[in-house]
Amino acid sequence: MNKTDISGISENPHLYGTFHNVVLKDLEIKELKRRFHYDWKDWIEKISAYMKSTGKYYHNHYATICIWAVKEQKHITAKNYDVKELSAMVQQVNETEVSTEDCLSDHVHHYDSKEAVMENAEKRVFRFEKEKAETKAAKKSIHDRLGEKKQQSTMKKAEKAVDKIVKKDKG
Question: Is this model's pTM higher than 0.85 or not?
Fold first, then answer.
């Protein structure tokens, strides 16, 4: 059965990219043009070349392109990305574009290439915030550090005074 959306655009998939390995529906192409109007073709070429060179396969090329593009846009503009926004996008794509049997997760994951660790992005943000709060709590203010130094100095002076008195008493 040939599905069509309300505007009459065919939902039959077509092959795109230099290596003809990117599977996209007409509606997905339309949406890529709308969302990434300056470089939508570049994203198709990137995923095409990446899949060919690595042998990797993605269940949904549209979703992968969206995630890559949004992540790069966020990285360029803020060097960080909003996990809630990405999660909402993944959920929307899963609800509107992915068949039930192809849906893997509604959650965004983060891969740390330095540590070679993949984790739930929301848990990662929470972990970083917790570590930041713990680090901040462990750090003392300059006022506290000056107070400690003053107390140490007073203690040293008192010890010297006691040593002086002890020497006087012995001598």
Answer: no
